[in-house]
Design brief:
The structure holds two protein chains of two kinds. By secondary structure, chain A is an alpha+beta fold. Chain A has seven helices and 34 strands. Classes of the chains: A alpha+beta, B mainly alpha.
Chain lengths: 601, 459
């Protein structure tokens, strides 16, 4: 009992009388303390032992669930899991009850201990009796001196503890916005685009992006051989196996062919010699700044390497389904890399990259329109630094934008949701928009005969004049056509005609200016890949590997047909009288072999 | 109910709270339903009604008034005790320690530094009212209104005297803790005083194992050391201590005059009673103190500067308390652990960062800059507190009577009954039994006084 309480209960300072119950209370206190210790120990031991009985971490249950993945219809396995799950949960609650009971026993034991201890202490309590008086001045000075020492010790302790925290701490978070930008750009230096940019003519002579330099999948100066027979090695320069699958299409610059491949574990950029098919280098793209620790779940129908790469003649750029974006120099060294944020796309990201001057255009349409998460980025090609970004009011889409020169401006034509939207490439400002689409937008837009062509999947193809401003839905739609409209392949055009290939293999030739149908023909091929036009010939690849070459003109005429025997999803690249065609397992170069080439068909 | 009975009951209550907490912390995952069963929607309890908040304020003001009345007018320890039990039940267990002035300095600091945060009126009143009362009547809030103090008071079984020098030296800790709380609040990071309050988990019947352990530790210590949290940690107590130093009225041990019988010397379990100190007989005795004072005065700015620098340096690791900074650091950690099989809040946050790294990093950088600025002020405050404490320890007080330390006294009234004059006032002693009194004074009956700090008598 406290001295104050004893003072309240006593009228004098008489010492307490010896109590015969002291030993009893003391024994009770000791016994209850031992009891508490035993109970506490039992609770702790049970707690540790029960950790493996946590339903979330029960190893046997986890193993059975893993088995269920491989045998989803095994009813006996399901029943076994249910029974084990029930048992584990019962065990869990048993442990819980044990702990609760133990805790209550602990409380009771503690109460007995405290009560007994207090009783025993009270029986030994003596009233306050002042001792001999000390010199107050001296005791004050002594206490003050000691207190100063304590305060100084506290100060030193605080300083040491603070410095002990501060000195070893290494923050990874940059202090300034500029440093953040640099970090997100993969620590790229302030390297400028020292080498001169390729001229438009050089770009036109190559295949720098998905669907070629113009985005129409049209090469004006490429001649392809009349006779192609892979079985007899006729017209095939080389064939190189590609180990890892990807839906992306090849891009070509000079004597280099670039591909992307990958899956959830590894994602690669590959560079091949255009003359020999030799793999010059392959680079793993992972663990970039911001790369997700957990890869998104992407259906196999799209995969991680659906977007095609793009090149500006100095670097090749590649983006993958997890948002990892990397730029490699032509010698294979990483220029920069960063993650653009994991695209929130139910089928996986598939929009390809574009280059414009020394810049890179990265479209990421994702999520739902209401969430405003879709964005169009313009990055510096040399550093990856964001020049501008534009939030787009569209949901996930899979169409690659096209760059056009119209109305005195360079426009980026994008499709998504119900909208065709044009942005000014210079600053990302919106120029015009038209509401004419529906469904899940996969075919990419093209530009020919001063018209933008957009496909509303399985619905119609619309031609839009790109010289408007604002909402041009009711003012700038030139024409539309609604038969045999595809849901995956993009339209292609040679300027005079627009060719539309539906997924079941019906090719429709439309007059680009009027939309009048010139002809159509059902090839009875399942087609996923967008065809390409080499001068006056259309190369159309069926999914099963059959390739058809037909005339790109006002009249239908099939010129040739051959079978590669391998699945084809990628659009061909046409450069220097060669067709670079990616199948599911290989990369083909079709055309006349050059004298110094090492053909390996 | 006797004192020991009350303490026993308080212990049982605390133990019960601990048991319930242990059970409440068990979280059980829902089964994996395949039958289309819809889990019930999680509901959020409605906010507290406005009239209830005003009722809290009314209870606070009433309790403060009663505490002053009991301490200064009735001089009744028993009344103060019952009032503190009521406060423990109301502000502690009923209001779950949530509406409490101890954490209020953080709200005020956040209100100052974050224009988007408006300090609730009730919080402002809870912050200001006890301080205003302390300016007039000392720490009567601690005596009968604070639930934390009440709990520790009831737990006190066998008080052990903490040496005065140790108590005085450690009295800087509450100021440093106050600075820490304001530092984190001003940086918009966390209310650390609330988060690491050792008693609130008991009041709320819920809490993490760590805080329950810390709280249990405080409870055990409270059995032997009077009010350890109040004396060595309470940040609001630091403010009340400052206000009490200049309070208009103060608690006096004796209702009449001090006979220097020394019976009250050991009566305060909180070490707040100071013995008389005569003035120095020779002024030269003060020379070492004066030299020390000069030294500390010169060192004070340097101390502030050094600690400001230390505060700035410690701001970087301290910023990790903020969830956004912690998320950004984890996001940039090259050795990120693989995602768990079952998503956790941390792994989900990391996934969100994966989707929008730029905004997370920008926000983290902004918070870190804010921490860095606040770190200068925090460090400077620590240097100031320690420097002023050292300066104050060079002064030599002069006291003629036994009296409570103005800042340290909790106004609990324990010492009243130790004074023979108080017993005479209550009729428990006859005036002739008083030690050191003259027979002529025995015809006067002392009454409750102490309002002005001077003895009063009435005929």
């Amino acid at each position: 009992m406290s001295s104050s309480a004893s003072a309240e209960n006593q009228t004098g300072n008489q010492p307490s009388a010896p109590c015969p119950f002291y030993l009893a209370w003391r024994t009770s206190a000791i016994a209850s303390a031992v009891f508490c210790a035993v109970v506490a120990l039992a609770i702790l031991v049970r707690d540790f032992a029960s950790q493996k009985e946590d339903p979330l971490n029960a190893p046997t249950l986890a193993a059975l669930k893993q088995q269920l993945i491989t045998s989803p219809n095994d009813e006996s396995l399901k029943q076994k899991i249910r029974e084990l799950d029930l048992r584990v949960r019962r065990d869990y609650f048993t442990v819980l009850r044990f702990k609760q009971t133990g805790a209550w026993l602990l409380v009771i034991g503690m109460a007995v201990f405290l009560y007994s201890a207090r009783k025993a202490a009270r029986l030994r309590e003596t009233p306050p009796i002042p001792g001999p008086a000390s010199d107050p001045t001296e005791s004050h000075l002594r206490a003050a001196a000691h207190a100063r020492h304590v305060a100084i010790a506290a100060m030193a302790l605080f300083a040491i503890a603070s410095l002990g925290l501060a000195i070893p701490h290494r923050s990874r978070v940059p202090a300034t916005e500029a440093e953040i930008e640099k970090l997100l750009a993969g620590g790229a230096s302030t390297e400028t685009n020292a080498a001169p940019l390729p001229t438009p003519a050089e770009a036109a002579a190559n295949w720098p992006r998905f669907l070629g330099p113009t985005g129409n999948a049209f090469a004006t100066n490429v001649s392809i051989p009349d006779a192609i027979d892979p079985t007899n090695k006729v017209g095939v320069c080389w064939r190189t196996p590609v180990g890892l699958f990807g839906y992306s299409s090849p891009v070509v610059w000079g004597d280099r062919v670039f591909l992307t491949s990958g899956d959830e574990t590894n994602r690669y950029v590959l560079c091949y010699d255009a003359n020999s098919g030799e793999l010059l280098w392959q680079r793993l793209v992972r663990d970039l700044p911001g790369s997700p620790q957990k890869q998104p779940e992407i259906p196999a129908g799209t995969g991680f390497a659906a977007p095609s790469p793009a090149t500006d003649g100095q670097r090749v750029y590649a983006i993958f389904g997890n948002g990892d974006l990397a730029a490699f120099k032509f010698d294979g060294t990483l220029a920069w890399g960063k993650n653009m944020g994991v695209p929130d796309n139910p089928y996986g990201h598939a929009q390809s990259l574009l280059v414009w001057r020394d810049r890179l255009i990265v479209p990421i349409d994702q999520s739902e329109a209401e969430k405003n998460r879709s964005k169009l980025f313009m990055l510096e090609g040399a550093t990856g630094k964001v020049v501008w970004e534009k939030t787009r009011p569209v949901p996930s889409s899979w169409a690659t934008p096209v760059l056009i020169e119209a109305g005195g401006l360079t426009q980026i034509i994008t499709l998504g949701g119900s909208w065709v939207i044009s942005y000014n490439a210079a600053d990302g400002s919106e120029l015009w928009r038209a509401e004419c689409l529906s469904g899940e937008i996969t075919p990419s837009p093209i530009f020919a005969a001063d018209l933008v062509f957009a496909i509303s999947p399985n619905d119609k193809i619309i031609a839009i004049r790109p010289d408007g401003r604002g909402d041009v839905t009711k003012t700038h739609l030139a024409w539309s056509y609604d038969e045999n409209i595809p849901d995956i392949p993009s339209p292609v055009s040679n300027g005079a005609f627009v060719f539309v290939v539906s997924t079941p293999g019906v090719v429709t030739c439309l007059d680009a200016k009027t939309g009048a149908k010139a002809w159509d023909h059902d090839f009875e091929l399942e087609v996923n890949a967008t065809p390409a036009i080499a001068k006056d010939k259309i190369i159309m690849a069926g999914k099963k590997g059959r390739v058809v070459i037909l005339q790109a003109g006002a009249e239908f005429k099939e010129l040739a047909r051959f079978d590669l025997g391998e699945e084809i999803f990628a659009s061909p690249a046409l450069v220097a009288d060669r067709i670079y065609l990616r199948t599911a397992v290989a990369l083909y170069c079709i055309g006349a072999p050059k004298p110094n080439a090492q053909a390996t068909p | 109910m006797t004192m020991r009975g009350r303490s026993f009951y308080a212990l049982v209550l605390s133990g019960t709270a601990a048991v319930w907490n242990a059970a409440a912390e068990q979280r059980f995952p829902p089964p994996e339903f395949e039958s289309g069963h819809q889990l019930p929607v999680t509901t959020v309890p409605p906010p507290r009604a406005l009239w209830q908040e005003y009722a809290d304020v009314a209870v606070l003001l009433l309790c403060l008034g009663l505490a002053c009345y009991f301490v200064y007018r009735r001089r009744s320890r028993r009344s103060v005790l019952w009032l503190s039990i009521f406060s423990l039940i109301y502000f502690g267990f009923y209001r779950k320690g949530c509406i409490c002035p101890i954490g209020a300095p953080q709200n005020i600091a956040l209100g100052f530094f974050d224009p988007a945060y408006a300090v609730p009126l009730v919080v402002a009143v809870f912050f200001i009212a006890p301080l205003l009362v302390a300016l007039f009547a000392g720490r009567t809030f601690c005596a009968g209104v604070c639930p934390h103090g009440a709990l520790q008071d009831l737990l006190l079984i066998k008080p052990v005297k903490v040496p005065t020098w140790l108590e005085t030296g450690l009295s800087v800790l509450p100021y440093i803790y106050l600075g820490t709380g304001v530092f984190f609040a001003a940086a918009g990071s966390a209310f650390v005083i609330c988060r690491y309050d050792p008693f609130v988990p008991f009041f709320r019947l819920s809490g993490g194992l760590t805080m329950l352990t810390v709280g249990a530790g405080f409870i055990v210590v409270s059995m032997f050391v009077g009010r350890p949290y109040c004396r060595f940690l309470c940040p609001y107590g630091a403010l009340l201590r400052l206000a009490s130093l200049v309070s208009k009225w103060r608690v006096r041990i004796t209702p009449d005059f001090c006979t220097k019988c020394r019976l009250c010397e050991e009566s305060c379990p909180f070490g707040a009673i100071r013995e008389p100190v005569p003035p120095p007989t020779n002024p030269m005795e003060l020379a070492p103190d004066r030299r020390r004072l000069g030294l500390f005065l010169i060192a004070l700015p340097a101390l502030i500067a050094v600690f400001a620098l230390i505060g700035n340096r410690v701001a970087a690791p301290a910023a990790l308390v903020h969830p956004t900074v912690a998320l950004a650091e984890r996001y940039l950690d090259p050795a990120k652990p693989p995602p768990p099989k079952v998503p956790t809040p941390d792994s989900l946050a990391l996934e969100r960062a994966d989707h929008d790294p730029a905004s997370v990093l920008s926000e983290a950088a902004r918070i870190k800059r804010r921490f860095s600025r606040a770190g200068w002020w925090f460090g400077g405050w620590v240097g100031l507190v320690i420097g002023v404490r050292l300066i104050s320890l060079t002064s030599r007080p002069v006291r003629t009577d036994y009296e409570p330390d103005r800042g340290a006294c909790f106004a609990c009234g324990r010492c009243f009954m130790f004074c023979p004059n108080e017993r005479v006032r209550l009729g428990l002693l006859s005036p002739s039994e008083l030690p050191g009194t003259e027979p002529a004074r025995t015809d006067t009956a002392p009454v409750a006084s102490g309002d002005t700090g001077k003895p009063k008598t009435a005929t």
